[in-house]
Amino acid sequence: STQLKQKADDYYKSYKTMSSFLTCPLKKTQAVDIIKPISNYITNTFSGSVLNENKNVIAEFSQLRGNAVVHSLDKHEISVETLQRYYDQLVAMEGKLPIAEDQIRISFTWYDAFNKGSIFGSTKCSLSSGDYERFCVLFNMAALLSQLASIQNLSTDDGLKTAAKYYQQSAGMFSYLKDNVFPALHTLPTPDFSVSCLTALVSIMLAQAQDCFYQKASSDKMKDAVVAKIAMQTSDFYQDANRNAAHYETKGLWEKDWIPVLQAKQSYFAAAAEFHQSKVNEASNKYGERVARLQKAEKLINDGIKNAGNLNIPDLKNLAGHISKNLVQAKKDNEFIYLDKVPAQDQLTPVERATLVKALPISSPMSTNFQDLFTKLVPMSVHQALSTYNGAKGALINSEVGKLREATHFMNGVLASLNLPAAIEDLSGEKVPQSVLEKSSEIKEKGGLQIIDQMIQNLPDLLERNREVLNEAFRMMSEEEQEDQKMREYFKERWTRTPSAKLTQQLKEEGAKYKSILDNATNADNIVKAKYNEHRRGLDILSKSDEEIANSLPKVGATTSSSGMEAVKELRFHMQQVEQLKRAREELEEEFKSATVDIQSKFLQALAAEGYLDCQKIVDQNIEDVYAGLRTQVEKSIEDQKVLLDKIQAAYNNFAAASSGTGANPRDQMLKDLASAYDAYMELTSNLQEGSKFYNNLTELLLKFQNKVGDLVFARKTEKEDLTKDLQLEAAKGTTAPTPSIPVHYQQQPVKPDRPPPPNTQPTPAPRASPQNQPSSNPPQQPQYNPYPTQPTLMPQPGYYGPPGAMPYPSFPFHPNYGEYHINQSQVMPGQYIPPYNPQPPMGYQGYQWQQRPSQQ
């Protein structure tokens, strides 16, 4: 009739006024200092100059965190953009500034979103993990989207579409968290991150997104067959949401009206689907089926009204009124006009479903026009690849230059043993050879014995300074470990954080390597001192004036024949070749040190193209391209030396045979000693300079190591104070008793209790006290959530700190070994006995009926 059609149109418009969408609350956090830990990490890993380049962006990043998660957010798209930008920044910096217990140690504290707290505090968790911070930000983004969706203007198409999009985005974020939180953290931080809680939130958001499409279909007056399919699928979504939300692990998290709303909506949409399908039956002249569906719809909507209880959901009653009036008219038409058979409700064909929503995947990046704050920092994979390249480059240069120096040292030794070139410079045996005077002059220009003595005297001070820094680092670790052990003995199993012995294991291994380096340096110092003492007399003579050197040399007469003069001429030519060879080697050594290639850009290009770095392949290829030609020159120089020494030896034999008085004499021995002393001076000067540089560089490394230890000790001290405070609060709440196991009725299907005995027929003045073993009228409480998670057990990994050619300190292997986080506490409140003569159904929280009867306690 026209009147029923008008009322049906009113029904289409009524649902848009329903304000029963559920919104997820946001997690709360605390402000934390992120500037100092990041600054220390950049200084220790990169350099102080790199820190100066990034000081402003570090402060900007700290401000971004405050705006995104510390300060309150308005329900506006701008707030979503702020969260998205912070989330994108966390993702972008994962490869550059890894926040973890063994890298940048920043302890993020987040509270459970559904915990309302008490005078003793709220459920919270603190973890030094960038993943944990990112997950919490994503949770807040999903929660804020659910809140934004709930305030959209549902009377417009744009409002409905926006709300549906937000709900689907929120579902996608909760779904991502469900799949990634535990695998990444290896622990359950707070109950809102449990799989059951996140599963429930996903299903709720999907149901509400489908709900929006139902409203759109209703307002557009789409065909009843289509609206029925959408409504039935919406009912299925709410059924899943209700089942997941009523799970025993999560049931106590929600507000008291959540589950009644889900139950009511499940019934509402099932009734709406049957209602619209009845109109399809009417159009196809199936009047008996129309009556049956309206009867089924009436039963369903009444169930929804019953489930809603005291909740004010006007749409339930509106739909109930439409169904009732249509049912009266349908019965009347069928009984007096059509006389069609009314089938049983269980014989009705199920209404088909139409799914219009899904959990939308997370986009990357989320924010529009995102720009990484730390563009000047290279990814850690590239930084480590650069360290690998510099290490390989330094090793190759040291090896090739070492070959050249070793060959030169051998050649000098051969010439000194032959007393060349001194033997051919003063044939009279009375004057000081010119080469000796030149060597003496060079030694005096470099500072003579005084500079050697000064550098040797400085070695013990440099060594002791490094030992003091290293010992202080070990002392801090030892004191922290002792303090941790005392607290562990006091609180016993409640002291759940990672033991210091495990946490500092890798730092101790790194310190042991430094100690070994210092021990080796001590041995090197002793070798230098022994060499110095061996040549001290010759160095003392070379440090004197030319006249004093002449007086120090023994006088020996010598004559040389004409054939000997030919040998002298040949030897002088070969000495010129020796000098040319030495100069060529000096130039070749400089070429090794100055050869460069823009290897960083090649690493970045490979990373962008492949998504990963085949570091060793790139390193080997570039080392070969740059240094292959220089290595060939080294081999040729060594071969040329062999040929030259053979010629020198042959010419010297001729010279010795043609000279008179060539037997062993003190003058020749003195000249050989002076030549060896000169070579020793050059070597000692180089070694002592390298030794001083080594100790100074090692001091910088040890100070960085000490800073890492200090940061760890400070963080552990703060963690200890927070954990001690939490344990004291737990003790004040009286929850320090031994942890009970999960009750059997939470793990198995409840078993129907035995029938109670018949009541006593003897008259009694009043009912007796409630027996302890009767079923409770209240549901058992949820297992208590332990707010103190198992801490990760990894230590910071030392990177490659040294410059090209310096000592490489290899990274330690990464072996995560996280323990699972178990929740095994529960409390069951005793119930009251329900007399058999006054039976009542068992009731759940807030008065809605239990899905299953609890087992007997």
TrEMBL record:
Keywords: Coiled coil. GO terms for biological process: mitotic cytokinesis. Residues 452-483, 571-598 form a coiled coil. It holds the Pfam family ALIX_LYPXL_bnd. SMART domains: BRO1. CDD domains: V_Alix (cd09235). Residues 20-411 form the BRO1 domain. Transmembrane segments: none annotated. InterPro entries: ALIX_V_dom, BRO1_dom, BRO1_sf. Residues 848-857 have a biased composition (Polar residues). Residues 783-804 have a biased composition (Low complexity). Residues 733-857 are annotated as: Disordered. GO terms for cellular component: endosome. Residues 756-768 have a biased composition (Pro residues). This is Programmed cell death 6-interacting protein.
